[in-house]
Amino acid sequence: MAPRSSHALRCCSCGRWLGLLRTRVAALLRVRPSKASGAGPSDPEAIVERFHPRRPDWYQELYAKVLKKCTTSYEAEVAAYKAKLFSQLTGKSKNILELGVGTGANFKYYASAVDINVIGVDPNKKMEKYAQAAAVAAGLPLTNFSFMRGVGEALPVGDDTMDAVIGTLVLCSVTDIDMALKEIKRVLKPGGLFLFIEHVAAHDGSLLRCMQSILDPLQQFVSDGCHLTRETGKLISEAGFSSVDLNMTVLSSLSLIGPHVYGIACK
Q1: How far is C-alpha 114 from the geometric centre of its chain's CA atoms?
Q2: By the 8 A CB rule, do 212 and 229 touch?
Q3: How many CB atoms lie within 10 A of CB 221?
Q4: Which class is domain 6-266?
Q5: Where does residue 7 rank: exposed (0-12), middle (13-18), buried (19+ CB within 10 A)?
Q6: Domains of the chain: which residue ranges?
């Protein structure tokens, strides 16, 4: 019998204790579910609480500050991808919803266009002041920007109302990714565009995938629900869009979340 490679041994060893470790870490870091999780759909705040239980104010404020100050290297490496992707909006989209708008890091790529209206949706209300500042810096009048506390599983806008939906590093954090994709399709007009950039799971059997699986519960806790092991590109491709232009890349400066997918899906 041929000897196993050191890579295979590492992954095999990883597999033996991975389940136990993940269970113990998850138990330590689990967030208590909201008491509103059984509420009906008529209360928007209850819907948000159901899918994204409110964190303490200090946590939400800290996370917003960290997101604003500590993503410089990531934004620098992904800038060329964003510029190319968002150029597809020029002259085509007037009503845009950005899911997981965060601190408004994407506004500089598209929000300076004439007569556009942007709705920024995020479950963290502490992001609003940063998003507003980014809108102004990008040349988007605040009269044309609305921040709404909400979640991807229940977008707070009507059917067939958006020319485009933008989501960057957000489908890693929603509770139900399939429901979020259905909501994105619901709010898009026929022919509307979903523009996405997402970090995804590494290849099965790789050492990186093993490490992602080990650290996934910790990542969810410290990064507001972010998952390391989602195959988001596959789920977007299977979500029922009329067409999907899907691309893959690896960002060299981000080892744990280096694998990315980006592209455009058309309703």
Answers
A1: 27
A2: yes
A3: 16
A4: alpha beta
A5: exposed
A6: 6-266
